[in-house]
Amino acid sequence: MVPHRAIERLVVGAGYLPIGPDDVFLQLAPVAFDASTLEIWGPLLNGGKMVVAPEGQLPLGALADLVRGEGVTILWLTAGLFHHLVASGLVARLRGLRFLLAGGDVLSVESVNAAMAELTGTTLINGYGPTENTTFTCCAPLTEPVTAPRVPIGPAIDGTSVYVLDDAVGTAPDGQAGRIHAAGAGLAHGYLNDPALTAQRFVANPFSGVPGDRMYRTGDLGSRGEDGALDFHGREDGQVKIRGFRIEPGDVEHALRAHPDVADAAIVATSSGDERSLVGFYVADEPLVSEHLRKHMETLVPPYMIPAVLVWLDALPLTANGKVDRDALTAYAPPGRGDLSSDYRGPGSPLEQWLAEMWGDLTQTSPVGVDDDFFELGGHSLMAVRIIVEISDRTGVEIDPQDFYACPTISELAALIAAGAPE
Q: For residue 77, which of 89, 94, 56 has the smallest C-alpha distance?
């Protein structure tokens, strides 16, 4: 439950982002995602202009063309989309921007420096903050190449106080990791119809002299530098972020366990380069069809919480004290073809062979058959965007994302490409 003053603090007289009547925002994020708060109220409360992006996942080239064609001056991208845009070589098309904000997850130093080299007239901002403190808590305007191991998340924005606390709930020394707490005008009232969780996360602020003042326990770990800027170190609990969405693995485990044939389940997050994904391990009498498990889970949790890969085990590994050994699960190899709903059929043309190799590289699966479902292999929407860009660059054929989702196998996609290829 976010009060009006929290939105005002985010976009009115915001020192980190001076918004004026000549600015044009692109409203790209789903309205359920807190980035939309900035995209909608930033222009509307400052006399600016808001351009609403078409529904659905835009191809990267179309996104860049939309930004340039509409004269967008302020753009917010999730970390995943930012990384893909840089990797695609399309970031140079954004040179008309005054500000490019990216966040929602950890930004890669390499991607940030590559973007800054192309966008010399644009201020790149690394934005950090939980939804409970209304989109941004800290922002780091980046004006020089990053030479540190991490991209800083910056100081607190106006109207916000940030505390890095040690185990004794005292201020952690500069350079020492501690728990990040946020206070100020951006705080939400709490969680709707959940007073217990509200009391657990929103606690009294011992550093304020104002009666009733609160601060939010973010669950994030960070450290403060001598200049006051913060570095993000990760989560102190099992909560993870996948493509900008904060996910409680326990909620995903509950959905997987709810299947009538699943006896137990565990979820771990894995990383490959800039990509993070969920892997679900389940215990059952025999391997189950992954497609059926996913359809069941989709009735209980949003699509972004569905594991990219599902692995059958006859038992979950345990530590010496009887808890699930998540380190052992993380070390498990990706599933074999028994986890897929299709039998293997090899590529029958150079185009299918090229697609199979690309899918294999992205999903870390080998071999990839032409009847394998891209999403069963662990693919997701951002990977799909990357594939669409590669197809366009190599063949000149523009694939609509919705067509990709409707044709998620190599055989179907190859036919779609062939139908759209120039004579």
A: 94
How far is residue 235 from each of residues 130, 180, 266, 282, 299, measured CA to CA in Å? 12, 10, 18, 24, 28
Residue keyed to tokens 């990357």: 386
CATH fold, domain 350-420, is 1.10.1200
Separation CA 252–CA 307 (nearest Å)? 8
Query: Taking the domains of the chain in order of start, what are their residue ranges?
Result: 4-235, 240-339, 350-420
Which amino acid type is present at position 247? Answer: I
Task: Tell me what pLDDT residue 266 has.
Answer: 87
Token code pair at residue 272: 């490959």
Q: pLDDT below 50 — which residues of the chain?
A: 333, 335, 338
Q: What's the confidence (pLDDT) of residue 243? A: 73
- Distance, in Å, from the CA atom of 41 to the CA atom of 39, rounded to the nearest integer, reads 6
Which CATH number applies to 240-339? 3.30.300.30
List all residues 6 or more positions away from 268 whose beta carbon is below 8 Å from its beta carbon. 249, 278, 279, 281, 326, 329, 330
The two structure tokens encoding residue 142: 């980046």
Tell me the fold of 4-235: Rossmann fold (3.40.50)
| Intra-chain end-to-end CA distance of the chain, in Å | 56
CB 270 within 8 A of CB 291: no
Instruction: Render the burial of 322-339: b for 16+ CB within 10 Å, e for the rest.
Output: eebebeebeeeebbeeeb
pTM for this model (two decimals)? 0.68
How confident is the model at residue 340, as a pLDDT?
Answer: 63
Instruction: Say how far apart CA 138 and CA 208 lie, in whole Å.
Output: 19
